[in-house]
Amino acid sequence: MTDNGAARHLIELEGVTKTFGTGPAAFQALKGVDLTIDKGDFVAIMGPSGSGKSTTMNILGCLDVPTSGKFRFRGTEVQSLTRDQRSLLRRRYLGFVFQGFNLLSRTTALENVELPLLYRGESKAARRKAGLKALDLVGLVPWADHTPAELSGGQQQRVAIARALVTEPDVLLADEPTGNLDTERSIEIMELLTDLNRAGITILLVTHEAEMAQFARTIVHFRDGIVERIDRKVDARGRHAVDHGGSA
Amino acid sequence: MFGIFGATLLLSLREIRRHLLRSFLTTLGIIIGVAAVITMVTLGNGVTASIRDEISSLGSNIFIVFPVRTERGNPRPFDQSDIEAVASQIAGVELAAGSASSSAIAFHNGQNWTTSVNGVENDFLRAQTIDVVQGRMFTAAEESSGQNVCILGPKVLEAIFVPGTSPLGEEMRLNSVSCTVIGVLDERGQGGGGQDQDNVVMMPLKTVQRRFVGNTDIQSFVVKYDSDYASSGIQDSLVSLLRERRLLQDGQDNDFNVIDTAQVNDALGAATGALTAMVAAIAAISLLVGGIGIMNIMLVSVTERTREIGIRLAIGALAREVQLQFLTEAVVLCCLGGMIGIALAFGLSYGLSAAVDVPFLFNPAINVMSFLFSAVMGIVFGYYPARRAAQLDPIEALRHE
Fold first, then answer.
1. Chains A and B: how many Cβ contacts under 8 Å?
2. Residues of chain A found within 8 Å of residue B314, distances taken between Cβ atoms
3. Closest residue of B to A95, CA-based?
4. Average pLDDT, stretch A113-131?
5. CB-CB: which of B3, B315, B318 is closest to A122?
């Protein structure tokens, strides 16, 4: 996990393929994906079911490795790392938000948020301090002692976001974070993500809702295991032009 | 590292508390196993101790010799010359003293009581460490002339004498023989053969031979030897001397028995030790079965918590950290079971020792060993489920419902 100063991009996918199963039952989920993402970007990955967007997300989240091709994260060739090395990478640089929230049900909001720090070996006092700070970012300090069952869906997802933020990650990966929420809650979550992005965190979002994707600065469209199109939105500061049908 | 270990321990306790009934039922095997092993060993120790106690009441460094029946006929008794030969001809023998006995009815104060009368000499009493607590032993004159004096066992005293009065100097009758009470024996309890050693009246050997059995036979005798000599050497000399005196040919079996109290002690100790070991081994099997129960429930727990494992892995837990968590849970479960088992065993062995009238000997070693063993069971039977948890694929685990 050395910082490679020569790396120009935070994330680089190069000819990435992913095949599940073997023999006649084999299914190729990714058929050669090239994609680069820069630090500070807000990327939405869109596409219909089976287009390969979740598989891509798993690879970007270092949960899975490509069958062939290269995935460089901060210049490190992730596909050649061991399971535990990838765990260490996730622990250090990545935060996850899932569609189903995935909170530990018997533990309080604060304990859920503190969990990643436990694996970093932080002291109890440090965990508590950082946990409360992260809960403050999502506006849930008053609910710190509540268990997930006592929180609404939107609040649970905020706890999950706080848990992802507590380690001060470089990248936040959100897989359908609004999939279980109504529109109003969804927009609140997207606004929260936008704020975090403005604060400097790179955000990778997987969604099938175009409305939610509009919050992103870059929209990557997947179809049948390849990148079909990349839209780069002109934001308020007018930094980007729309770019159809090519890699960046 | 302590942070994560402490947190893991805390988490394990929380998981156990959450499924209190399930955890209890799971550890029941361990609890019963540990309790059974400790109780059996503790009781075995108590029984061994009580048997040793009884055997040592026979006296130490002594042989007891008595004739036995063979295919050639009834037991042939010894006589005084045999005893004198043993005492004078075998190196290391300190003394040899014979006895003859008969059953008799004791009369005093209008009461009667069935007992046995033993004709002995003072040496016999000393060799077998039979103590006189009131009065005195026989005088040389009483022994040599066979006078009518007697020393009472405590049972006889209790049966026919008025409580609280001294029996010393009182006249009593045994069958038709009257005698003067000169002493009372110490309490000795049940003998190794089950007879009551306290229901006895001791009289000089010559008196019993003349007045009760009507001959000069020695029915059995005791040989006390110097503890510096090897008992086996003395026993060999004793046997060959007696064979010679009893005119036994080569190839003929001994028509007498020599009992070495030290050997009996060892043999009984070995027998009860083997029995204890066997029962403890059977109990250990239940401990093993308990361990399998732990493994089963840990596998269930891993399946139930697949999603939790997925979350932990996704946020960066290493495989070994997940493994440690489940292993800790299994070990904590087993250790709790072990502790409950030890407490249960303490109560059980205390109660049972009292019930079967053996001393309660708390054995720290077996308690510590059982506890450590249950912890090891946790490691052994928790290893596979923990490893399975650690090797889950995070993506699959997160999808698990």
1. 61
2. 61, 63, 90, 96, 102
3. B315
4. 90
5. B3
- Six token digits for residue B299: 């596998």
Radius of gyration of chain A (CA): 18
Residue B174 near residue B150 (C-beta atoms within 8 A):
yes
Give the best residue of B311, B321, B395 to mutate against chain A (max A CB count within 10 A): B311
Taking the C-alpha atoms of residue B205 and residue B150, their distance in angstroms, rounded to an integer, is 11
Q: Is B86 helix (H, G, I), strand (E, B) or coil?
A: helix
* pLDDT score, position A246: 40
What tokens were used for B39? 């109780």
Q: Which of A63, A91, A115 sits opposite B394 (nearest CB)?
A: A63
Which residues sit opposite A33 in a β-bridge? Answer: A16
ipTM of the complex model: 0.86
State how far residue A233 is from chain B, nearest Cα, in angstroms: 31
- Which residues in chain A have Cβ-Cβ distances shorter than 8 Å to B9? none
CA A238 from centre of chain: 25
What is the residue whose two structure tokens read 């997160």? B398
How is residue B77 written in tokens?
């008794």
Find the mean pLDDT for residues B201-221.
91
CB contact under 8 A, B315 and A92: no
Chain A nearest C-alpha distance from B3 (Å): 6
B236-255 confidence digits (pLDDT tens): 999 999 998 988 888 888 88
Q: What is the pLDDT of residue A166?
A: 92
Q: Which pLDDT does position B264 carry in this prediction? A: 76
Q: What is the mean pLDDT of residues B185-198?
A: 73
pLDDT at B13: 87
The DSSP 8-state label assigned to residue B213 in this structure reads I
Distance, in Å, from the CA atom of B32 to the CA atom of B42, rounded to the nearest integer, reads 15
Q: What is the mean pLDDT of residues B305-326?
A: 91
Residues of A in contact with B317 (CB under 8 A): 87, 91, 119
User: For chain B, what is the mean pLDDT?
Assistant: 88
What is the per-residue pLDDT for B12? 85
Matching residue, tokens 């506890």: B371
The per-residue pLDDT for range B63-110, each reduced to its tens digit, is: 889 998 888 788 889 988 998 998 899 888 888 999 999 999 999 888
Distances (CA, A) of A138 to A47, A175, A192, B51, B342: 28, 18, 7, 76, 50
Q: Mean pLDDT score of chain A, rounded to an integer?
A: 87
The residue whose two tokens read 């530990």 is: A104
DSSP B275-313: HHHHHHHHHHHHHHHHHHHHHHHHHHHHHHTHHHHHHHH
